Amino acid sequence: MPRDTAGITEKAGKGKVDPKQKKLVTESKEAGKKISFQLGTKGGEEVEVEDEVKNRFEQYQKDFKAIMDSFRVKERIWEDKIRNLEEKAVERENWFREKLEEVNRDFKKKIEIIENRCLAKIEEMEKRIRSDSNLEGEGERETASAYSEDRSVRYRSDCSGGRLRSIGSIGRLSVKEVDTIKRLVWEKDRDERRLNIVIKGLTETEVGLMKEEERNKAWAKDFLKERVGVECEIEKCWKSGPVIIVRLRNESEKKEVMINKHKLKGGKIFIENDLSFEDRKVQERISRWVRQRKEKGEREGIKVGLGFKIRGEKGEVKDKGENNSSDRNFGEMLFWNCAGIENKDSEFWKYVNSFDYISLCETWIEERGWNRLKNNLPGSHVWDCSFAKKEGKRGRAKGGFLIGIRKGWGTAKDKLIKEEEVGIISTEVILKGKKTKIISVYGEQGGKRVIEKLEEIIGDEEIRELIIGGDFNIRTGEVGGIELNEDVSVRYSKDKVIGNNGKRLIEWAEDKGLYILNGCTAGDWEGEYTYVGARGCSVIDYILVSEVLHGRITEFRVDVRVDSDHQPLRLKMLEIGAEDVNTEVEKEEGRTIEIISWDKEAIEIYQEKTEIWEHGRESDQQEPKDVVDIEEMWDRIKSFVHNAMVKKRRIIRRKALGYKDWWDRSCTRKKRAVKRMFWKWRAGKIERTEYIKEKKNFKDLLEEKWREKRVTEEEKLRNLKREADIWKFINRKRGNRRRMDNSIAKET
User: Fold this and answer.
1) Coiled-coil annotation: which residues (predicted)?
2) What sign results for the dihedral spanned by CA atoms 507, 513, 518, 522?
């Protein structure tokens, strides 16, 4: 240690180095003085603490400066990234605005084209009327006659896709185009009234005070809060004649108002939906029909708004799901992915049996199951089956078709299925002497190779009358549809997604001259979902028809059923007259057998007859006979005993197809409840998850009922002691009747 620091060190205190931990242990310090210590190192070098601390502090400063520099660099990098994102967001926003403006311009342009066509046709008709009125003289009349004949000349137009059209019809709007325009106008009007409610029954004084908009809104808000119990925001309020129309902010508020409007019951004020002119006329017809029926005393079963509708001038009532079998000028066809048919109930088969042509796909029926099923199918149809196939040794079979044609509906061979591919079959039916080809489709996941398989069956053959229907497993969105002109086509669908093969399927159909019916046909203008399951909703089931048959289609509808996740497709076609179809369904009476009754009354009758025979036999024995014919006597005894027994006839009716011994009323009620939930979901009143949950509860109920029945039967079988009773129980479950031995042994 240096000499100049020796004294200071002594005053500050003694320090020593721990050789193990190399730590300085300080015994005492003297404040206010600069102290330096010597540390013993391994090599014996002396290092001052002051220099060590200074070096470390400088190192810390350098590290801190480096860290701050790195932070500043990162900050600049993030600022650049954020600036780039903001620029991209602005560019994307501008791009969306340009696209929106472009779509608006195209829409206005298309509307302008349609308006110009309508105005041009009106001017043309006015010119023709004026020119016809100026024609005078015989020569001019001949010219007019020649002109009218020339207008009726038909020619093939290249722009019309090879269709025959009259010269007078060039440029005119067709009936379908006019209906489409009317529907667009009706939808726009209906959409504008969607959030409106109508308050009726107010006095003239109250209606007369509705002059200022702000006061009207305040009055409507207070009225709904005090009288209905719903507090909501009012968008607009105005008077229209004797009623007040209120526009709310959103649909949830309107739903609350319509749910709680029953609180006005008993008064003269009531709330209704804001209906269009056409809807009001329909509602007036329904109310008038109900009022007339109630005046006649027919109050039972008549409720407005529960699925009834008026048809015809006589006001006949028909339920939504009822099939009108009396109108036989139409042939009805069914295409349905039923997801198995062996597990279906009798109500399913009752619905299926109401159609003239039936195509069920994904039946899961193998050859062994078909042998059990074919003898139980309804006798009103001719049936044929394409078997499902297993991919491996385990698991159930996949695919399969069941085809049925009503007897008398056209002409078909015993073997209905003519051509068969994996997932596609074709049948041929002769309707009014013309061959109609019907192809049923069940596509694999994603619709793989569906178009190729259809091309293999159809090929280059020109088929005038062709129908293709089934589960394609392809989503087409709103592609295709009715062509208004060369640039505009209309087709609606609730499923907006276009799958991988969607455009390709539509292009193939257009090349073949086929029309898709989903979303552009009477009965399905909105393009309802055809698949509703736990995985989501989509439109993947279609019906395509050729141009010749397209004009005879009167209705296409997606029915509502809960037997499968897929919904059935119903096609109604103007085809054959009433004289061609046997509308009477064959009623199977069953097999009649004769049984011997041994109840108390039958035994008494038998005893009386045998006593009479005994008296007669004793009188015969008193007469001497040289030869007794044993065989003759035995025949007489057997005949008398047989005639003395009491016999009854019994009809053994076959159980209905789909009969289940465990099915009870609770299952029927639950199935109806699930169907009502589906209707509510389709109307937008509930969420899809609620319907899926209700359907799952229905399946759980069926499984529970089946399990309870099996447990009961097993318990009953365990309690049986005698072997005869056990076999009697087994044969009854098998469907075999216990036969009685009526033979009488000969006694010599």
Assistant:
1) 68-117
2) positive
